[in-house]
Amino acid sequence: MPHPLIQLEKVSKVYGAGNTEVRALWDVSLNIEQGEYCSIMGPSGSGKSTAMNVIGCLDRPTSGKYYLDGENVAYLEEASLAHIRNRKIGFVFQQFHLLPQLTALENVSLPMVYAGIAAAERQERAAEALKRVGLAERLHNRPNQLSGGQQQRVAIARAIVNRPLLILADEPTGALDSQTTQDVMRIFAELNTDGITVVMVTHEIEVARLTRRVVWFRDGQVIHDRLAPGDLGHMMATAE
Hints:
By secondary structure, the chain is an alpha/beta fold.
């Protein structure tokens, strides 16, 4: 049988010890299949960002197993994790993290430099990715010549240029106005339709309702692992 793309088995993440111990995640089990479009929600301090860091191979669990595309990656060496991040995962963050001295084309090309892809192919694929997010006319603009929404589109192009299995987006619309949020979410939906798994941390109910599945965290645990977007109103009221 096909395995889930993301499979957490009794994953815990504990910081500190004794009186200073903090259980950021506790005994979390969660499966996300290839091709899903999923948002992760919960109140502040619920563990959703820690879960995102573990799923993205940016942090290791204290205990438990994490299978990404069938491979237990929980305790791999950093070099192996870096390789997995570069080849299998695309990251999109709230603050874009573009290098200001580089053009859009050069920013999008960076992950391919680390992947060892030849210069000619890098340029071709970066231009293709920027065209895919509607920035074919902005290849040579630097970040300060782009709006916030355009910068986030560059970041999305950078995330997809290595053709990942998974996009992880951490509050990707947090710095955008409502119209630009709709534009960016439309791009995520199109990428998901093309087969890329999208997992997004958000606190915005309007954003989560545009995904197909909601995972709700509280106190470091998964309270609901398969909420329908229409059920969010009740959950938000409970959280408050």
